Amino acid sequence: MENNISINSAKYQKKRKLMKFKDGLENFLISSLPVFGFLIFGAFPMVLSLVMSFFEMHDTDFSNAVFIGLDNYKNMLNFNVYGKDFLYTFLTAGIFMISVPIGLAIPIFIAYQLNKIQFAKHFFRSVFFVPAVCAVTIIVIVFKMFIDENSGVFNQILTGLHFEPVKWLTGNPLTFNISMIIVSVWSGLGYATVLLQAAFAGVDESYEEAAKIDGASSSQIFWKITFPAITPTLGYLVTMRLIDSLQQMSLYYQFGFGIASPPQWTEGLYAYNTPVVYIYRMIFANSYQFGYGIGSAAAWILAIVIFVVTRINFKLQEKWVSYDF
């Protein structure tokens, strides 16, 4: 009898160890998939581009590459070589950053109002989230209909008010950048609104009730209690929007396609090139003249700029982001 119990116990322990091993292996494989994905599609291309940045390359064959050291970086930073062109693209990105405060101020207002209403809250939240699920190409097609120089909705409104129609895309760099800011604010409205509405809903109502009892006004409650409570979410959105502004490509490329296509790399067209669009055109639009090597060097310069801007942003957030609520 005791022998049977010990045998069954040994079998149970063995089966338990096998199940534990299988569970551990399964959990490891599932959790390692993102790591493998990053290594294959993230880390490896980054290392490869870093290596390429030290070569003069006009195709992907390393046997034809010529090692030139830091010359690609020197040429990109030399104002008289490519530095001027590259600097202007950062000016365009800087103008586009205006969309960050505008694109967050509007969702804050909408989310705050959504949080106060009870009727059809989920419906309105879904409506505002629609832009977040729209493909960039669809957004471009729709807004090209809005800002068309001849029959666009915006110009029809202007002519109806007895103003001259505006050439939104081809008139001048200012109107083009204004158009990009408008499109960016609209397309990012839904994602920011949903996150901020959730942040508003998570604010502890006991703080607001205590403030009301103490005689605080609505504006005082908002700026002293409600707004500080949502700053962690707002800080995240600011960080992601800043990075997106420096990496912006799709809007400028699709709206500017045909306006600033090579070889029209003239001073009046800098506004149509963000750093990423510029890098893309250096590598793929005219690789014989520019090449993969110098394009990779430009990409790493942009990465360093993004890192510096992000670090400054994190440092500044220490002053206004509150985690006490």
Give a quick precis of the structure.
The protein has 325 residues and is mostly helical.
Strand residue percentage: under 5%
Name the overall outline. Answer: globular
Query: How many distinct domains?
Result: 2
Q: What string gives the helices and strands in order?
A: HEEHHHHHHHHHHHHH
Quaternary assembly: single chain
Largest sheet: 2 strands, antiparallel
Based on CA atoms alone, the radius of gyration comes out at 27 Å
Total DSSP helices: 14
Percent range of helical residues: over 70%
* Annotated CATH topology of the largest domain: MetI-like fold
Distance between the termini: 62 Å
The CATH class designation of the largest domain is Mainly Alpha
Instruction: Label the structural class.
Output: mainly alpha
* CATH level-two architecture of the largest domain: Orthogonal Bundle
Strand order of the largest sheet: 1-2
The CATH homology group name of the largest domain: MetI-like
Give the low-confidence spans.
Answer: 261-269
Number of strands: 2
Can you offer a commentary on this structure?
It is a single chain. The chain is mostly helical. It folds into 2 domains: 1-52; 72-325, MetI-like (MetI-like fold, Orthogonal Bundle), CATH 1.10.3720.10. 72% of the residues lie in helices and 1% in strands. The chain has 14 helices and 2 strands. The chain has helices spanning 2-52, 71-77, 79-96, 99-116, 121-129, 136-146, 153-160, 173-187, 189-201, 205-213, 218-246, 250-256, 275-285, 292-320; strands at 55-56, 66-67. Strands 1-2 form a two-stranded antiparallel ribbon. The radius of gyration is 27 Å and the shape is globular. The model is unreliable at 261-269 (pLDDT under 50).
